[in-house]
Design brief:
Length: 203
């Protein structure tokens, strides 16, 4: 099957920050700090600043800067876990654990990822909205093997192996940025809710 993709220019620095904020991978305060940093460190890309401050890893920055537009334009979809791995949001071992849990409890891949604290509900919602809009309001349980987000473990792992490995999973950078006192931007990312009733059962 031939893949077709929509022509999509690379995001501008401001737009890259907005993408990461909309995906709940950085906060508004962190975005503003990074934009302020870029005025002083004009040789750095915005994604590099996010990485230098430890807010995301390099693979995630590269994915949204260079690959997200192309991924959205594809007519053939890979499993959800493969995209989360490609974006540097989880490694192969984590995907395997989620798939095993999926087989045990019958929940969808995304719902298990949130329950296990691997990603935030808002980040899952962002990926579903843009890649699998027809699945965003689907039931949390797997009713048959033909549903879009449910794939055999071998297919998920094969798709992951075809994607690029994280370039810098540690998120480290060979430079340091000076501390900013305002706006304060080190708020921890929310973890998965403790009560099942608080989770939007999608994905």
């Amino acid at each position: 099957m031939t893949l077709t993709a929509t022509s999509c220019p690379p995001p501008t620095p401001q737009r890259l920050g907005e993408l990461l904020r909309e995906a709940h991978l950085v906060t508004e305060a962190q975005l503003q700090v990074a934009l302020y940093d870029q005025q002083e460190y004009s040789q750095l890309r915005l994604g590099e600043i996010f990485v230098a401050r430890g807010w995301i890893n390099q693979r995630t920055a590269d994915f949204f800067a260079d690959e997200w537009g192309w991924v959205r334009g594809q007519s053939l979809r890979k499993p959800l876990g493969a995209y989360l791995h490609q974006a540097g949001l989880m490694d192969t071992t984590t995907v395997e654990i989620i798939v095993q849990e999926q087989r045990h409890n019958g929940f969808r891949f995304g719902a298990n990822a949130v329950l296990l604290g691997c990603i935030d509900q808002q980040t899952l919602d962002y990926f579903l909205e843009h890649l699998f809009p027809e699945e965003k309001d689907a039931a949390p349980y797997v009713f048959n093997s033909k549903q879009t987000l449910i794939q055999p473990q071998s297919e998920i792992l094969a798709a992951i192996r075809r994607s690029q490995p994280p370039k810098d999973p540690s998120g480290t950078a060979p430079f340091e940025l000076r501390e900013r006192t305002a706006p304060k931007a080190s708020a921890p990312r929310p973890t998965a809710p403790a009560e099942d009733a608080d989770i939007a059962w999608i994905g």
